[in-house]
Amino acid sequence: LTPLLPHLDHRNRGMRTRLGCLSHKSDSYNDFTAILPDKPNRALKRLSTEEATRWADSFDVLLSHKYGLAAFRAFLKTEFSEENLEFWLACEDFKKTRSAAKLAAKAQRIFEEFIDVQAPREVNIDFQTRELTRRNVQEPSLSCFDQAQGKVHSLMEKDSYPRFLRSKIYTDLLSQTQRRLS
Fold first, then answer.
1. Cα separation of 78 and 87, whole Å?
2. Predicted confidence (pLDDT) per residue in 46-74, tens digit
C-alpha cells in the first residue's frame, strides 16, 4: 500500500493543478468584439469614455446601456453566474407580454429554467420566494416574478456589480475608450 501513496499524491497534485487552472478563469478581454453586440468594431468606436464611466454611477445605469449590459454579461460568464442576469432579462421580457395565451407558457418556461429546484440555470433565492413564485405561476400575471426578480437584482447589485467595476474587463474597456481619444 505505501508504494502507491507517492503515485496517488502525484496524481492528486496534477488534478489540483488542472482544477486550479479552471477555477482561475481570466476576466480579461483584450478583444472586446466578443462582448459587444452588432458590428462590434463600430460599437466600440461609438462607446465613449463618459458612457462607460457612467456605468459606475449605478447598477441600473449599467443595465440600461446596451454595451454595459454586454460587458456585465461577459464578466458574469467569467464567474459562471450569468444565470442571474439571464433570469432578470427574461423577467423584463416577460413583463412586456401582451397575449394572455403566451403569458402562462412563458411563465412556466421561466420557472422551469431558473426558479424550480434543480432548474438548469437555477438562481439563488430563498425558499419563501421560490414558493411564492411557484404559487404565482399557477395563475400568472405580469408581476408573478417581481419578488424573485427583485431578489436577484439586489444580489447582483450588492455582489457582482462591485466586482465588475473592479474587474479587468471593465478597467480594460475604460482604458480602450480613453486610448482612442488620445
1. 17
2. 788 999 999 999 999 999 999 999 999 99
Query: How large a percentage of the chain has pLDDT more than 90?
Result: 68
> Helix/strand/coil (H, E, C) string of 68-120?
HHHHHHHHHHHCCCHHHHHHHHHHHHHCCCCCHHHHHHHHHHHHHHHHCCCCC
Global pTM value: 0.76
Grid cell, residue 92, equals 423584463
Domain 48-179 in this protein, CATH class:
mainly alpha
